[in-house]
């Protein structure tokens, strides 16, 4: 069955709104036309929250957390049994806003970078988490040190995987399971896990198992080393 991302985006916008996790879903609904025309979306400044701050949050006067998401995603078409990189355009930025006493606000950020270039002078997984990022430029960082390394290899995430990543980390289990138990939520998440994560996970598994007796076809034998360059 062909996936209908437009419908899935519409359904998730309603779920986020009805769950009081997003007061303005226009960054989502405004991208549905782009998916229909060009199979691409760029969801910008989507504000998720409020969330209670996690334990051991610093500074300790933070009482509310909001998350801003900036996600761009365009897939490549692959046969269902082919294993290869299937992402053409990609951006995944997360900014955290902590609200403290009075009007005090604190900021933090990370991005899940996608960089296929071979020009870097250091080890560079194609997909990697980097703490900090461009969104923190211009803020007073005090005595905090932000580095572009280490670059932590991580599975790529589209909008659906990204939203699930955020709410599964910031909601308590009971509230998360209420949302993730919704069949419309679950089906879209499963579709993204199959289309985005399967390529990543099976390419790494192929490094050891070689897909003996398996229906999948590895199209790039070196793909796993692009995802985790230190594999031997």
Low-confidence stretches: none
Classify the secondary structure makeup into a structural class: alpha+beta
Major beta-sheet overview: 6 strands, antiparallel
Q: Specify Rg, calculated over alpha carbons.
A: 19 Å
SS strand fraction: 15-25%
What's the N-to-C terminus distance? 38 Å
| Widest beta sheet: strand line-up | 1-2-4-5-6-7
Number of helices: 7
User: What's the total number of strands?
Assistant: 8
Q: Report the principal-axis shape.
A: globular
How much helical structure, as a percent, in the residues?
25-40%
Order of helices and strands: HHHEEEEEEEHHHEH
What number of domains? 1
Give the averaged pLDDT, no decimals. 91
């Amino acid at each position: 069955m062909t996936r209908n991302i437009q419908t899935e985006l519409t359904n998730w916008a309603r779920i986020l709104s009805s769950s009081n996790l997003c007061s303005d879903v226009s960054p989502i609904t405004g991208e549905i036309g782009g998916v229909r025309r060009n199979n691409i979306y760029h969801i910008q400044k989507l504000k998720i929250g409020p969330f209670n701050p996690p334990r051991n949050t610093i500074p300790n006067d933070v009482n509310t957390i909001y998350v801003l998401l900036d996600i761009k995603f365009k897939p490549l078409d692959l046969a269902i049994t082919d294993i290869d990189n299937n992402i053409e355009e990609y951006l995944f930025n997360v900014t955290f806003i902590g609200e403290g006493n009075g009007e005090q606000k604190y900021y933090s950020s990370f991005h899940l970078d996608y960089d296929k270039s071979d020009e870097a002078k250091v080890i560079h997984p194609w997909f990697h988490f980097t703490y900090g990022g461009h969104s923190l430029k211009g803020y007073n960082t005090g005595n905090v040190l932000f580095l572009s390394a280490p670059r932590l290899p991580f599975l790529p995430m589209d909008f659906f995987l990204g939203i699930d990543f955020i709410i599964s980390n910031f909601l308590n289990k009971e509230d998360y399971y209420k949302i993730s138990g919704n069949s419309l939520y679950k089906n879209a998440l499963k579709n993204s896990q199959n289309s985005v994560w399967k390529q990543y996970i099976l390419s790494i598994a192929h490094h050891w198992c070689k897909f003996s007796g398996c229906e999948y076809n590895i199209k790039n034998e070196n793909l796993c080393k692009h995802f985790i360059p230190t594999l031997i």
